[in-house]
Amino acid sequence: MNKSDKTKNQLIQAVIELLRECYDISELTSRKITERAKINLSTINYHFGSKDELVNIAVNKLIEEVSHSYFKGNNAEENPRNKLKSFLISICDMVVDYRKYTKDTIPYILLQGKFNEAIQILPLVKACFEEGKSDEECKIISYQLISFLQLVFYRSDEFKLFSGVNIMNKEERDRFINMQTDLLIR
């Protein structure tokens, strides 16, 4: 790992630690981040362009960690549809658990971020169809599942007014995920 990558990782780790400690994303200042990382204040803009970019990358990394831990400990015997639903539920639970800052980062993820979760669920979507859908169709379904969930979380109040589903309520959220998955994966 070169010095530049090491510095980037230090900054990302500092943000992750601070995110776990703070209750308001506005408390996360560049000064606090660089003090935690023991790095010069100007390095954030040098390596990431802005503090917002760094925070968004750190939040995405947290989501990736949840994804990786899910797949690492997942039961290989479970059927693909149930695995997919369980994965979506675990990601959504994490988004709600960290909602103090995930809502602020969803626009970035939707508009600029990588759709890592769509890539991660692609094998599960393909397994659900057992060759009944093309690769392209499975990719579109994966993308639909993830991007729609992100939009629903970002506009949760409007979604609740429109649908009556409170995505912040665990029972309603799980029911919604089951419904959405059943609509796209038959």
From TrEMBL:
Keyword flag NADP: no
InterPro entries: Homeodomain-like_sf, HTH-type_Tx_Regulator, HTH_TetR
Keywords, sorted A to Z: DNA-binding
Gene3D superfamilies cross-referenced by the UniProt entry: Tetracycline Repressor, domain 2
Matches recorded under PROSITE patterns: HTH_TETR_2
GO MF terms held by the record: DNA binding
Protein name, per record: Uncharacterized protein
Organism, as annotated: Clostridium felsineum
